[in-house]
Fold this protein.
Amino acid sequence: MVLKKDTTTPSTMSSPTIISASNEYSPLRALIIGRAAHSLFPSEPPHMIRATMPTLHHPEFRPHHPFPADIVAKADQELDNFARVMTERFGLKVYRPKEVDWAKANEGRGGYTGAMPRDGLMVVGRTVVEACFGWGCRRGEIELAYHDVLEDIMEGAQKAGESVRVCRAPKIVGADTLYDGLLDDDKPEDRKDGAKQNGTFNSQNGNQTTHWAINNTRPAFDCADFMRFGTVLIGQLSHVTNPKGVDYLRAVLPAPYTVELLNTTDDHAMHIDATILPLRHGTLIYCPSRVTEEELRRHEVFGDWDLRPLPWNPEEEEEEEEKDEGPPRYMCSKWLALNAMSVDEKTIVVEERQERFARWLEEEFGMEVVRLPFRHVNSLGGSFHCATVDLVRKEL
Ligand code: ARG
């Protein structure tokens, strides 16, 4: 099969070293790796927690509730170790955020974590885009933890003579209306009217309608609901990404980048990086209970790609992990196995307990799998893809 290269990717004039990435798999040169210290369970209203978090753990999601200290400490060791491997074995430039006391964030109402930068930042070409977070507890996350990294990037770009644009999120003036008409304690009539007036949006998946936990009164999106495939970004609507958020993103992206939405059938949708995983140009793994091959093929970027469903369902897997009582996955499904991070088109970082997945990648796709411990980071809400932001990927 002859694969079209994405010739539309803007070619790099000089060779940029500070910011430049247009896909998820070209050779990585520089990245951000998060930090776990002081992570708190995100405190969002119950309807949002019900929509996005595993039922078993709902009681944990209350204000000012820190994740267990030993999990956070081990998560930081895993993140430090990951950073060391990226620097020493792969020669990558690694940026780390500042340590933030999340209990003090948002005027004392509390924040969440510095461990999941993928949700809040995205590099598209030579532009860095900050998410318009839907979650109130994540407001200020980038400013608090990543301000210095962004400054470093700007300074580095200036020195190198590269033109880089950082597109910070707009400030919300006055009350946030994103949950209007959707809260449990809204009177039913307010809820109905509020929902109508405030442009609640639903998604139709075949016969099924997903009622999202946010309305469409202001732009909301998490960067992790999008992935780059050359000049096309593939994204999804979710409990944290609304149509206005997608419009906003389209408006701030540099030409010629565009956004196409994938119809996913995930009632709990929040972040697309446990639904699709591109290994290299032309090969993508997907979660067949969340998206169909037909839906993927509808997007021209995947026209001639080898699209492979994961041939087993991690949710139904008898796990060795369960026997040795790993830390709870408070915030994610077992599809998090797909949340791997590519170093290049042949090399990928996978959680060391995901042996079946690692072996499948080696045997089916000839990948070189770097196995690293990350279960305590997983416990806080994500894996290698979530915990990173790629800043420079060298175009092939
Ligand atoms: N919602 C996904 C799942 O439970 C996990 C996505 C995590 N991604 C992230 N960028 N934090 O399967």
About this structure: The chain has nine helices and 17 strands. The domain at 28-393 is CATH 3.75.10.10 (L-arginine/glycine Amidinotransferase; Chain A). The chain has a mean pLDDT of 92. The longest helix spans residues 69-88.
